[in-house]
Amino acid sequence: MTDQDSSPQDDAVAEAALRVVEIAGGHYAARALHLVVDLGLADMIADGRLSCVEIAAASAMDERAMLRILRLLAVHGVFVEPAERVFALGALGQALRAGRKHGAAAAVRMLSRSGMWEAAGNLGESLRTGQPMLESRRQRPLYQANSFARAEALAAAMAGFHAGMHAGVAAGYDFSNAGLVVDIGGSTGLLLEAILRAHPHLRGLLFDRPPTAPVAKERLEAVGLGDRCGVLGGDFFQSVPAGGDIYLLAHVIHDWPESDAVRILTNCRRVLASEARLLIVEPVSGDSVAELHATLIDAILMSATGGGCRTLQEHSALLAQAGLALRTVSPIGRIASLMEVVAAD
């Protein structure tokens, strides 16, 4: 058989080989995306079209090199090339613009930090030992406060990771019988804001670390929720505020290894009244709808924090150690599940 006489099976094998090579080279596309975000190309092009010459000149970059990067990302839908060497934003590129809802630029910037690259490069060691890059969780690159000029940057990055989640939780759960919603580790309050706006009868309390709490208070007051939402600084490893009808742990538990996660959950159990509920929102491993998002988050957490995405069975076992029980599970789009938790009998 000659090369011209290849069979469908041979073609499938060749296609698979090319796909494997594309995955192996994915860090080049990732790095290219980091660079165009740092250069602000999405805001530079906006709704218009610019030639590669104009883009390179405005960003003080080499024209030929810029053309290569733009075309690399055009394959992925970040840019389109409607005319020779002329570029506009593709659908993915629009998500990188400043001020856009669910904007992803901050998340891209966070993943481009040197510590995150080092954590990814340490995957082999994490695979061997099961441990993250650094021994101290509070020094790990995903949560280094000094990696960002302000706490808002970290909150914006997390919003990019969790695009669509806030509205999904607000619309996807019955808050009608609640009065006070307490968001544990609530960052700057984007989730709590969505819930309070969707349910005007609710009051909120945001609980986060002292460096973040003042930022959250200022932001919630600025969006007109200061009279309905209090803010309290503290450490959820020590205690959490009492009195809530609903407690939220959104993308918190998966950040931590088992022993730390149980400490957080145990502190929640101590203040959970008989009719109160705890809502855990995060990707669930094994959920086919959210599997792509969950596996990415899982790899990041494995190398950077020591946490990871858990199966429903693993969540149930974790909750049992803290005197809690999983009652219901609801999908929130393709990025997470909402797990309703109550005090165990």
From TrEMBL:
Record: active site: H254
Organism of derivation: Allosphingosinicella deserti
InterPro entries noted in UniProt: COMT-like (IPR016461), COMT_C (IPR001077), COMT_dimerisation (IPR012967), SAM-dependent_MTases_sf (IPR029063), WH-like_DNA-bd_sf (IPR036388), WH_DNA-bd_sf (IPR036390)
Superkingdom field: Bacteria
Matches recorded under Pfam families: Dimerisation, Methyltransf_2
Domain O-methyltransferase C-terminal as annotated: residue spans: 169-324
GO BP annotations listed: methylation
Residue ranges occupied by any O-methyltransferase dimerisation domain in the UniProt entry: 22-96
Keywords: Methyltransferase, S-adenosyl-L-methionine, Transferase
Keyword DNA-binding: no
Protein name: Uncharacterized protein
GO molecular function: O-methyltransferase activity; protein dimerization activity
Transmembrane segments annotated in the record for this chain: none
